[in-house]
Amino acid sequence: MDLITHSVLIVAALCFALGAINLRLWFGQRERLDLLAMVFVCFFGVVYSLFEAAWLKTESPVIFGQIARWSQIASWGSIVSLAVFLHLHLRAGRKWLLGSLIVLRTIGLAINFAMPVNIQFLEMTAVEQVTILGEQLSYPIGVPNPWHAIQALTLILLLAYSLDALISVWRRGEHRKALIFGGGVALLSLTSLAMAAAIIWFSVRLPPFASPAFLFVVVGMAFEFDYDLRRSAKLAGELTDRERELTETLERLNLSASAGHVGIWSRELGTDSLWVSQKMRELFEFDAEETVTVSSYMGKVHPDDRRTLEQIQNTAIASDEVYEAEYRVMLRNGEIRWIRSMGQARLQENGEKLFRGASVDITRRKLAEAEAHDLSHRLMDAQEKERARLARELHDDLSQSLALLSIQLQSLTGNSNSPETIRNQVDKLTDQIQKLSSDVHRISHELHPSKLTQLGLESALRGFCREATAAHGLKIGFNAVNVPKAPPNDIALCFYRIAQEAVQNTVKHSGASMLNVELAVERNVLSLLISDNGNGFDPNSVRGKESLGLISMQERIRGVGGKISIMSVIGSGTRIEANVELPAAITADPGPPSTASA
Questions:
Q1: Which of 387, 386, 428, 437 is nearest to 407 (CA)?
Q2: Is residue 590's pLDDT more than 50?
Q3: Which of 9, 156, 177, 477 has most Cβ atoms within 10 angstroms of its Cβ?
Q4: What is the pTM assigned to this prediction?
Q5: Element (H or E) spanning 130, and its range?
Q6: What is the CATH number of the domain that holds 571?
Q7: DSSP code per residue over 413-440
């Protein structure tokens, strides 16, 4: 009777069963990487056990060496996977030990395939037989490979790592886990190390079979499964008691749901009637005494969403899974209300299936999403228009001016007029170059105000007002009071862009003849006030592209934690005020107020 061989095959079968169980558990809990690591441990253990069963019956030294060589892949996989499992499951052990073990074992695997025979023997001279428990088993005879010390060292590292993890987990108070897993891996590594040393280095006439050492891990996992089953049964009893308590608090939950503007509903499957809370009646505009049915409920749903909602709910009922759906409800006044519902069908103690759920009004969120989408589209459109404007300025103005300048310079070289005439032409060319330089500076300044970082907010705004006055002929007054020398960059850029947008809007739309810009700090609050005497507008009626500048101002000030108010009356001008609190470390400029007027 081949008792030893059958025992090795039984170990392989146990490893396969344990691996299949862990694989099934991992499919249900993909975040449990420790279960996946144990799957690899078990399946590599199966392969190693099959190799082992093969060489126990092999009589040829060549075949024995080849089997032993290829078995090192399974040995490497099981050892590395086992160490990784220990690290993931116990969350303990020094990482440098783990890393050293993996690297060293991988190096050993590479050396194994670089050797003429394998990493265990430099030369295998014979395979002899020994009888154990009435079964003849093969064992190798040959010249030991010194490189086998690497594998022995990895087993020593695995032993050290498992003991280190065992001690750490034991100190955490998890004694059961420490003994089952840390102790099991320690015994596996110690047994494998003793077997390898006895056969290879001390020439003990014993067949090399280490697969029974996997039983330390297999038995430990079986014990853990049993513990989890008993614990689950206990928790199931406790959950039954808790469910009874939860039933008693249903009315209180209904009250809480109403306070949170959540409508609750339930339906016994097989019937058409629905129980709905008071808030649910408000959301769907059911009358207080109206009997609510599935048909009347679906009648409130928008026709375009009705079929989809029915399919989602039917799927949830059939699968007992939680469903979530967003759909529209038609109100009596013709308006649309967006509803988000969540529900699940559960089997009750009486055998009946109850479909319960909750619904909440998400109309505001949907409107906000639509506005955000529209704003995004308008921002991209504005960006493209700004790029087109810059392209036109570069092509129609700068490019043509440069071409004209080039022609004039060429004509100058062939001009034989008097020096005075040449000097006058050079002066004209110089004026044109200066104008080109001013245009380039203006375009660059519009793209990014370099003065803001070089000179500060006050100087940059003063310069901008002066440039805007020169460019548009609009009288702009600028006043700064107690402004800090170096406000935070994000706040400075925010205020600069708000002023830039406001001045541009005034020039384009207001028809104003005068505009005032005031910058001041009071009680550590930086304020920007911009007012004009233009035509004004109705802020509530501005839509589309005309409101993009106002939205840009609001988003910028919101980004730095400030506030903005836009006040305008048709025929009475516009007033924009932005405020933001400065950090406590920012100190005000002690110098006198500065005033600039154009």
A1: 428
A2: no
A3: 177
A4: 0.43
A5: strand 121-132
A6: 3.30.565.10
A7: HT--S-HHHHHHHHHHHHHHHHHHHHHH
Domain that residue 89 falls in: 3-231
93 in the same domain as 150: yes
237: in domain: no
What does the alpha-carbon distance between residue 214 and residue 41 come to, in Å, rounded to a whole number?
9
Whether residues 260 and 409 share a domain: the answer is: no
Mean pLDDT of the 330-338 span: 88
440, 466, 486 - which closes a domain: 440
Residues 64 and 191 both lie in one domain: yes
Mean pLDDT value of segment 98-119: 90
Summarised one tens digit per residue, pLDDT across range 47-106 is 988 988 888 888 888 898 888 889 889 889 988 988 898 888 888 888 898 899 999 989
Whether residues 95 and 216 fall in one domain = yes
Q: Is residue 543 part of a domain?
A: yes
Q: Within a 10 A sphere around the Cβ of 590, how many other Cβ atoms?
A: 7
Q: Over the stretch 14-63, which tens digit does the pLDDT of each residue have?
A: 888 888 888 888 888 888 898 888 889 889 888 988 988 888 888 888 89
Q: Are 462 and 595 in contact (CB under 8 A)?
A: no
Q: Phi and psi at residue 48, in whole multiples of 5°?
A: -65, -40
> Is residue 44 domain-shared with residue 185, that is, in the same domain?
yes
Using the 3D structure, point to which of 395, 419, 440 is the last residue of a domain: 440
Work out how many domains the chain is built from and give that number: 4
| b/e map 361-389, b = 16+ CB within 10 Å | bbeeebeeeeeeeeeeeeeeeeeeeeeee
Contact 142, 128 (CB under 8 A): no
The answer to whether residue 243 sits within a structural domain is no
Instruction: Note whether 167 and 260 are same-domain residues.
Output: no
Q: Which CATH number covers residue 331?
A: 3.30.450.20
Q: What average pLDDT does the structure give for the chain?
A: 79
The pLDDT value given to residue 491: 84
Inside any domain, residue 236: no
Contacts 24+ apart (CB under 8 A), 585-590: 586/484, 586/486, 586/487, 586/488, 586/524, 587/484, 588/482, 588/483, 588/484, 588/521, 589/458, 589/482, 589/483, 589/484, 589/485
Q: Would you state the pLDDT for residue 106?
A: 92
Residue 346, token pair as written in the block? 């559960």
**Contact in structure between 480 and 458 (CB atoms under 8 Å):** yes
H or E segment and range at residue 294: helix 294-300
Q: Are residues 513 and 540 in the same domain?
A: yes
